[in-house]
Sequence to fold (405 residues):
Amino acid sequence: MGRSVLVLNSGSSSLKYALYNLEKSAKCLFRGVVEGIGASKSLIAHKNAQDARDVKLQGINVTNHRIGLNKVWELLHLDKDLSSSICAVGHRVAHGGETLTKPALITDTVKKAIEKAVLLAPLHNPPNLEGIKAAEELFHCPQVAVFDTAFHSTLPPYAYMYALPLSLYMELGLRRYGFHGTSYQCVLDQAANLLLKPKNNLNVIICHLGAGASMAAIRQGNCIDTTMGVTPLEGLVMATRSGDVDSGVMQILASEKGLSMQEINTLLNKESGLYGICGDKDMRVVLEAAQAGSEKHKLALDVFVHRIKKYLGAYLVHLEGKVDALVFTAGIGERSPPIRSMICHGLNAFGISLDHKKNYQDTNEKREIQSSTSKVKILVVPTDEELCIAQQTLELLSTIEPKSV
Fold:
């Protein structure tokens, strides 16, 4: 148990965590979430991943991340062996800006850089910092930041630049950064193993489809384009986010509806997407309602799939038709055969052909689901961002403090 890494993902009102023992294999020991931080009543759901024992604490008062993490500390230490097993804490940090492009040992300088990137991720980086500060007080071991934007640092300038005045990029760093990077790294590694091909020789298009959704085009193991931008709002239609929208809409909403910029931001991020079109944000509910004849739910599905296929076409061009695999991951990508079928429908001319039986196979294992005639592999690859953060944390420590781990 001497090589356990605690992974923390601090949101504005939540704290997700997972503890991995990486001594001999990637084994999850515990995982859980603290919800309702700052609310009058909070909830902690703590699960022993080894024997599926659950602990739920409801109605407790967790006013900040420090108190929430202290509760997690107490739950973890119900197993006394854990008191000396945690060798490091790995933190998911949403935005690293242009300077933090790989996992970093957290220092005052790194914390200042994360704080500087708050301008680019005002909803995510502040609670990420809160989680870091709380963990530093409780866990006297190395702390490592793993950045959601890092994977996309290989984007060429023509892919990440917006056609805005160059001064805005120079002064404010306004450019495409991309997100879900830790997930992409995890999925790319697994895809390479599944295809028995070195990662740096791999050309793939990955569809990370969940409540938050994005896509990435990867050439020879490096990301060359992605759908999310300076924030996670750009790109695909999501559960409650609009994705791509004409910026002129903001002026119309301000002048005709009298909405403030904060209200517009809330509308685009929390009241749009699938929810905005049909009133539901759970893809399972949307599919069921569409199949039952609801026109607005069918419309939401069509818009969702259309946007994905639009980017898929662009990425096929970016990769010059040399694609080893189309990869589906995250909640919808992994568990929704109908969505995968809708996306792949009509793509035979591009060498993409789905096997219906394989697509509907009831399993959580990574697998191939293309037909025997498909020129492009179609993969379903489960993502485990927490495990990837734990592994990157330990890998970094092994290079800078080999004796300590």
Q: What stands out?
A: The domain at 4-147 is CATH 3.30.420.40 (Nucleotidyltransferase; domain 5). The longest helix spans residues 295-318. The first strand starts at residue 4 and ends at 10.
